[in-house]
Design brief:
heterodimer, A: about 280 residues, B: mainly alpha, globular
Chain lengths: ~280, ~280
């Protein structure tokens, strides 16, 4: 569409909108740098209300790193929880990609009876919220004796349908002739995937990794259901258990939790946008 | 020889597909089929009880409340999100610095709910900052999380989180509308409004379909905000199906869960098929 010169009011609206969207995140970045004495006005009314409402200093009077020091030096359990998150999210991302790439390749290349039906089963279960499969997954995991182990969160997610669907999108765009000609030249199907599929479908795979990471780093439902032991919780579930009475620590921990997500968002934004658009295409 | 080659060809892709298909079968498909069977049985004895579980679910007061809330929440926030994001996308298509604004709007997708739990409490808590501002202007304090206002806080947090990709999808659709058609209409004397309603909007029906589906699916994830900020038993205006499933699970009400899961599955399946039908007819 051709761009028409827009008026100032539109820019002002956009600026207000952006500020409003970023505001909670700005608070989450400013507050942990405030000293205990300053945060007291913000946090203590939440814990023990004495008629004085919570107040926020948008400009820290005495910026300090004491909350981070307390978190990183005196709270060893934070490292354990961080490790839980890394282990679960990393394990899921690695294995789900390893499983989904060949499956997506088969869906994009093979013609077999029932292909359409099988693909539809994937799409249907992709559409279902966690609550629909929650009981079924619990029964399987319980039967395998995996409940309350990190593997209980990892395994079902490795075999989720969404990555297959999204990576399939990337592979489906590769012209058939390209892959077929490689086969005529004597390559076997794994080699075709390795030397033609992967380079050409790379952006779909990366998009899938970025979208999955952002969602997994925020996972709540699965660990809440499959883990009973709080020592196994990932960051996304552990942080709120600290509560407002340990608010200084919680704020610092939240800021540290934000770092990997922001990092992936910044380096992967292009893939993220491409993935969102690809996942929205109609089959 | 030819036959063996044909067979080999036919099963060539099996090793590619097998790990994934086996995993989906073991962790999702077969157990779900089993819980369909289970929904007709008593949880403890395994005796066939017919539709008793379904009767129990539909007669359950909490289920009624949760269904009502989930339906109202969906009916309010999806049209709201779709409308707001369209206006933003339409505005965005006419300004510079699109990239920057798009990044800002997408950013909440990357922010884990847990990182903002305390911020929501500082802002919306009964003794929170917004109440500080309200009371210092001489008004009475408002209980944002402990009254029916909690519903609107949840709607707001849903829109905040999901605005980015809906704007992105609308924008992709708007940018895809052919420039020459719009220019031709302008030459013929069409004004801005006519261009929007007669040319741009009709072209965006496919975008509307996918945006509706995706924002519906993501609406189930507001449980994260609702649960982490307000706990397992929040104010009854935001007690959603997700809370109910979670609480039934904690109490090990497995037969009710099985029946309710089948009901939710059927409703979503029917809605998706229906939308697809409506959409296919329009395309012709």
């Amino acid at each position: 569409m051709r761009k028409k010169a827009a008026g100032l009011p539109l820019y002002i609206i956009m600026a207000v909108l952006c500020t409003a969207v970023l505001f909670p995140v700005i608070l989450a970045v400013i507050l942990p740098f405030q000293a205990h004495t300053e945060l007291k006005d913000t946090l203590s009314p939440l814990v023990n209300f004495t008629g004085k409402y919570s107040r926020v200093d948008l400009l820290p009077q005495y910026p300090s790193a004491e909350n981070f020091k307390e978190l990183l030096v005196y709270s060893p359990e934070f490292y354990r929880v961080f490790w839980n998150s890394l282990l679960m999210v990393g394990g899921i991302l690695l294995f789900q990609t390893l499983v989904a790439v060949p499956a997506a390749w088969a869906f994009a290349r093979a013609e077999f009876k029932g292909r359409r039906l099988l693909f539809n089963v994937y799409v249907i279960f992709m559409l279902m919220p966690f609550q629909v499969t929650m009981l079924s997954q619990y029964l399987v995991l319980d039967g395998m004796g995996l409940m309350n182990r990190r593997l209980a969160v990892i395994l079902p997610a490795v075999f989720s349908a969404f990555p297959v669907f999204l990576i399939y999108r990337g592979f489906a765009d590769i012209p058939r002739d390209v892959a077929d000609s490689a086969r005529i030249d004597g390559a076997n199907e794994w080699q075709v995937l390795r030397y033609i599929g992967l380079p050409l479908g790379k952006s779909g795979i990366l998009a899938c990794v970025v979208i999955s990471f952002l969602d997994l780093w925020n996972m709540v439902e699965q660990p809440l259901t499959f883990l009973r032991d709080k020592a196994l919780y990932p960051l996304s579930l552990y942080l709120p258990t600290l509560g407002a009475d340990r608010g200084e620590l919680l704020l610092a921990a939240a800021a540290v939790t934000l770092i990997p997500a922001v990092f992936v968002f910044v380096i992967g934004q292009e893939e993220l946008e491409r993935g969102i658009i690809a996942s929205a295409l109609k089959e | 020889m030819i036959n063996r080659y044909a067979i080999k060809r036919k099963y060539r892709y099996l090793p590619f597909l097998l790990p994934s298909a086996a995993g989906v079968a073991v962790f999702t498909f077969l157990p779900f089929a089993d819980s369909v069977r289970r929904s007709f049985c008593a949880a403890v004895t395994g005796d066939l009880v017919g539709v008793n579980n379904y009767k129990a679910v539909f007669g359950n007061e909490a289920f009624g409340l949760a269904v009502k809330n989930t339906a109202v929440f969906t009916a309010v926030c999806i049209p709201l999100l779709i409308g707001i994001s369209f206006f933003i996308a339409y505005g965005l298509s006419r300004v510079k610095h699109i990239r920057l604004i798009k990044s800002v709007l997408l950013f909440p997708m990357a922010v884990p709910t847990a990182a903002l739990v305390l911020i929501w409490q500082i802002l919306f808590g009964d003794s929170g900052w917004i109440n500080h501002i309200i009371t210092s202007h001489g008004h009475g304090a408002v209980s944002f999380l402990g009254s029916s206002k909690a519903f609107w806080v949840l709607v707001g947090s849903y829109i905040w989180k999901n605005l980015g990709y809906t704007v992105l999808l609308w924008l992709t659709g708007i940018m895809g509308v052919s420039t020459s058609v719009i220019d031709a209409a302008r030459v013929d004397g069409a004004n801005e409004r006519q261009v929007l309603f007669r040319i741009i909007l009709p072209e965006l029906k496919p975008a509307l379909y996918t945006i509706t589906i995706i924002s519906f699916l993501n609406s189930f994830k507001v449980f994260r905000e609702a649960y982490l900020v307000a706990g397992a038993y929040p104010h009854k205006s935001i007690y959603l199906l997700q809370h109910l499933f979670n609480n039934w699970f904690v109490n090990m009400d497995l037969d009710k869960m099985a029946a309710a899961a089948v009901v939710v599955f059927s409703v979503i399946f029917a809605a998706a098929v229906l939308l697809q039908r409506v959409w296919d007819r329009k395309e012709v």
